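Entry 0007
Protein: ribose-5-phosphate isomerase
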Amino acid sequence: MTSLESAKRAAAFKAVDLHVHNNNIVGIGSGSTVIYAVERLSERVKNEKINVQCVPTSFQARQLIVQHKLPLTDLEIHPRLDVCIDGADEVDNSLTLIKGGGGCLLQEKIVASCAKELIIIADFTKNSHKLGEQYKKGIPIEVVPMAYAPIKTQIENLYGGAVELRMAKAKAGPVVTDNGNFILDWKNFQDYNWEEINTKLNVIPGVVETGLFVKMAKKAYFGLADGSIKEQLALA
Ligand SMILES: O=C(CO)[C@H](O)[C@H](O)COP(=O)(O)O
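Output (structure tokens):
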């Protein structure tokens, strides 16, 4: 296992050990780090006989839950979650996040908003002072397909930078999200007030959700290259 994978695994295991308790309703995030969280959750269910019910944040998360034979639930049955454990593409000093590198930002934000606490698990490459310092692929914005062109122009004209339609790798044309939408990646942005810009982006007609998670995460666990874990709490 590479040091990056070990770092993800260590962060995921620690978060699951400290933040998941018996009878919890648990939000399962998406991405490669969350795979280790589900592995650990499944071990704890088997070894410690804890009861959990899991709410997925994507098709991938649902598959992970099913493959590990963990109890699957949803927001209709459980609208309030105890905890949501998810990865991130970048985490700044105040625990503002860029999410959606894997295209699952909409359901991730919905599920996180229903949880008492959002716990972030990541490797050391995700830890930044300010957004854009480490993650160069841009801020993902999920949009209704027919509106992608005017939204792109509007964001570039109002806020600068470059907005690109995310193209699929093993399919001709754009990435289509689990919700049937497109993703725009906003690159070369400036250092904004992220709470303000998030609100402004969200009211552009056709924007479904942004990958900016402001004042949502309670704590982040970063696996470091030396095997240790850095913990970061949200500012009070
Ligand atoms: O937001 C996400 C998916 O929409 C992921 O949490 C984010 O991309 C991090 O993924 P990984 O753990 O693979 O680095």
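Curator remark: The radius of gyration is 17 Å. The pocket of ribulose-5-phosphate is lined by residues 29-33, 86-89, 99-105, 108 (CB under 6 Å).
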